[in-house]
Recover the amino acids of this structure.
């Protein structure tokens, strides 16, 4: 009895932080592996970036993730060309180190942050989000990152900060598409402060348990799952807190087609096409079957209405498209 | 050159060439190599080939005249009919893979999206041309009326190009439509220029 009752050394009783963190990572990794059959495995070529399963409400959709191959070969990233196969083909010229993000504007702690510091700013989480493109297709992607709110809190925006503006890299030497006049470079996107602070707005560093491939917006991008994909700026170099609503690149290009909010909304059609349904990439079992896979009905706020609906209470979403 | 063009195997060879894009796409479907969005790839490629076919058809007369190769005329009908075939498969692919053959949805789409309306109109206008493409139809109509009817192809090409431009306008991506537009301007401009010439001796 005596022996058993000997008090435990409190230091050794607690599992060291590195050990339990690595155990958690292992468990999360195992869970991810169990969840994702071989066909959805990561590339294995990029550095690992583990994230614990997110606890944020709505962050882990049960929809089947789109294959890694599709997620990384079918991209809209006009800095590397307008065809959806272009980014995967051309983005190898993007240099993601060294990389800094300039935090500017209406905040108490502006400054230039190194990507390594950003990677360590908050614990990484895995979030499985639906992604709905304004063109009428969708994917399901297991992202790795943390809530944008974590970074915003560190920057301490002041009372004049009503919006957050994101600017992507626009370097013609690294990005062949920037030489074309398709858009007015650099790519600029924006969110209202409350949207940016919403826990589902994800500052993203990886997908499928690895760092982001270049064509998906490496080394740091935004993922706003309830808005059309183009609202989620890629390869971000500047985050600026502003008082006035920023003008997004697509809004600048075609005001009546791409509004500032651009929330996924099946009842507000794009002037050129219906937004009522979407084609889920990779649905159907290949060959002829994938051709005949039925389009899915598009969900209000891309299925995140329970989480984000209140942000837009009382707003006319037909006018604020 | 004329001898090659007049060779008995020239037409069957062209026929086979015209089958190639379709064959290539079909192989792509069954080997799953059309990328992440095979339906979109299929529909767009079929549209591309419809335009290429039409542009080639329209290139026959200028090429024949400029290079003094009357034998080229033998191929015009086959190219035209194949363009119509690709247009039909393009439309069918859109109806099946994009619209799930939902007729109501298709009709609504034609009313809603100008570029779909353009494409549909171009296809409708191709029908009388395809229907009068055989020798007996030419005889029945009389060469003059047949020719007048087949001038419709100029309008069809322009409408087809509008269909393409409008489709790309959504994303401000005019690189390819510009190329097609430039070639079509050349093909139609040459005809206009000839017409404006004082009657040659």
């Amino acid at each position: 009895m005596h022996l058993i009752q000997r008090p435990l050394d409190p230091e050794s009783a607690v599992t060291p932080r590195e050990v339990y963190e690595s155990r958690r990572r292992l468990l999360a990794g195992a869970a991810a592996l169990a969840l994702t059959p071989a066909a959805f495995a990561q590339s294995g070529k990029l550095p690992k970036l583990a994230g614990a399963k997110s606890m944020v409400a709505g962050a882990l959709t049960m929809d089947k993730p789109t294959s890694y191959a599709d997620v990384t070969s079918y991209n809209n990233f006009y800095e590397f060309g307008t065809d959806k196969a272009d980014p995967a083909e051309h983005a190898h010229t993007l240099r993601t180190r060294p990389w800094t993000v300039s935090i500017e504007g209406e905040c108490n702690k502006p400054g230039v942050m190194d990507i390594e510091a950003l990677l360590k700013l908050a614990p990484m989480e895995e979030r499985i989000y639906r992604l709905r493109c304004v063109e009428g297709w969708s994917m399901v992607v297991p992202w790795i990152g943390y809530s944008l709110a974590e970074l915003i809190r560190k920057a301490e925006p002041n009372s004049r900060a009503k919006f957050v503006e994101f600017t992507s890299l626009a370097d013609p030497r690294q990005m062949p598409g920037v030489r074309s006049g398709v858009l007015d470079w650099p790519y600029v996107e924006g969110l209202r402060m409350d949207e940016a602070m919403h826990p589902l707005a994800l500052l993203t560093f990886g997908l499928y348990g690895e760092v982001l491939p270049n064509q998906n917006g490496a080394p740091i991008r935004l993922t706003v799952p309830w808005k059309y994909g183009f609202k989620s700026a890629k390869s971000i170099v500047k985050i600026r807190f502003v008082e006035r609503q920023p003008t997004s690149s697509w809004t600048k290009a075609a005001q009546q087609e791409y509004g500032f909010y651009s929330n996924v909304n099946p009842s507000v059609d794009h002037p050129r096409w219906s937004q009522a349904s979407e084609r889920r990439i990779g649905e159907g079992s290949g060959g002829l079957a994938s051709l005949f896979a039925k389009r899915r009905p598009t969900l209000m706020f891309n299925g995140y209405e329970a989480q984000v609906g209140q942000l837009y209470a009382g707003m006319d979403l037909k006018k604020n498209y | 050159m004329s001898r090659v063009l007049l060779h008995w195997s020239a037409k069957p060879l062209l026929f086979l060439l015209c089958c190639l894009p379709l064959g290539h796409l079909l192989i792509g479907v069954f080997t799953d190599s059309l990328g992440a969005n095979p339906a979109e790839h299929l529909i767009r490629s079929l549209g591309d080939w419809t335009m290429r076919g039409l542009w080639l058809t329209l290139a026959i007369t200028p090429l024949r005249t400029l290079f003094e190769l009357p034998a080229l005329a033998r191929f015009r009908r086959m190219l035209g009919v194949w363009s119509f075939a690709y247009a039909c498969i393009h439309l069918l692919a859109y109806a099946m893979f994009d619209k799930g053959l939902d007729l109501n949805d298709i009709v609504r789409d034609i009313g809603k999206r100008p570029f779909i309306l353009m494409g549909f109109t171009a296809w409708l206008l191709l029908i009388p041309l395809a229907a009068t493409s055989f020798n007996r139809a030419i005889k029945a109509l009389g060469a003059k009326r047949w020719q007048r009817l087949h001038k419709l192809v100029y309008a069809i090409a322009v409408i087809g190009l509008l269909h393409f431009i409008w489709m790309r306008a959504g994303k401000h991506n005019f690189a390819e439509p510009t190329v097609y537009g430039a070639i079509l301007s050349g093909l139609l401009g040459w005809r206009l220029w000839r017409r404006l010439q004082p009657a040659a001796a």
